[in-house]
Design brief:
disordered N terminus, mainly alpha, 0% strand, 252 residues, Ferritin
Length: 252
């Protein structure tokens, strides 16, 4: 027979907490790294999926802006115009930059470099969508038989050289892209910074020429925006590279 006032299991019927120990346990926190993705137990495949969805959304949003900006305006630029050439070639140039950024965003070890890569990727995806949207609104194909950079004057120093292959100034070769994907840790961070500095340097003359010579005002506006943005990013990229003991590659 159990004595009166005694719990059969020998426990306090009012609860199990002892005096002085009734403070609630601290709430678990879910820290976020600088790239804005969960750094705790979030699977990398889920982070990649979410970023991919964001990338598609940015591309579509940019395309919608591009189509809207090209409707109800003066006559559409011709297929061989500076406007069309810039939209096609800068989209191709941006496309490689986003792939480079994705490599270090997913596999880099330095939070600051990963954050910068994420910023470059999202910004250039939006601009790509905008330029491809222009082509659609102008009734022009995204693909063309015209040589890359044929819209730049021969004396610009960046015109297309048919013997030089399909790469535009500053772009990484297939071998360099393969090397980037093969690296990890600090070596990946440093090589990404080196490639992106050169990539930006190669794209600036294209953007400057479009800013000065495109026939449509909103194309000139984007050219100026790219010049300003990428010039500032080059300064940041070079500083980050020096801090990590690296040196820039030869300019294109």
């Amino acid at each position: 027979m159990t004595p009166a006032g005694t719990d059969p299991a020998g426990t306090d019927p009012a609860g199990t907490a002892e005096a002085g120990t009734d403070d609630p346990a601290p709430a678990a926190t879910n820290h976020l790294d600088e790239a804005g993705v969960a750094a705790g137990n979030t699977p990398r495949w889920l982070v990649g999926l979410l970023v991919t969805v964001l990338a598609v959304a940015l591309l579509l949003a940019g395309g919608a802006i591009g189509v809207t900006s090209g409707i109800g305006r003066p006559p559409a630029p011709a297929d061989g115009s500076v406007d069309a050439g810039f939209a096609r070639d800068m989209s191709t140039h941006h496309d490689q930059a986003t792939h480079m950024a994705q490599v270090v965003r997913d596999g880099g070890s330095d939070p600051a470099v990963r954050l910068l890569a994420f910023d470059i990727e999202t910004q250039q995806l939006g601009q790509m969508g905008q330029m491809l949207g222009w082509l659609q609104s102008w009734g022009l194909s995204q693909e063309t038989d015209r040589p890359q950079l044929a819209w730049l004057p021969a004396d610009s120093g960046h015109g297309h050289d048919s013997a030089g292959g399909p790469l535009m100034p500053g772009m990484a070769t297939p071998a360099e892209m393969a090397k980037l994907r093969s690296l990890s840790g600090t070596a990946l961070d440093v090589y990404f910074l080196q490639l992106m500095i050169r990539h930006h340097q190669g794209g600036l003359p294209m953007a400057r020429y479009a800013a000065e010579h495109a026939s449509v005002s909103y194309v000139r506006d984007l050219g100026r925006k790219i010049v300003t943005g990428q010039s500032g990013e080059i300064v940041t990229l070079e500083q980050m590279l020096r801090e990590r003991g690296g040196q820039p590659l030869p300019a294109p």
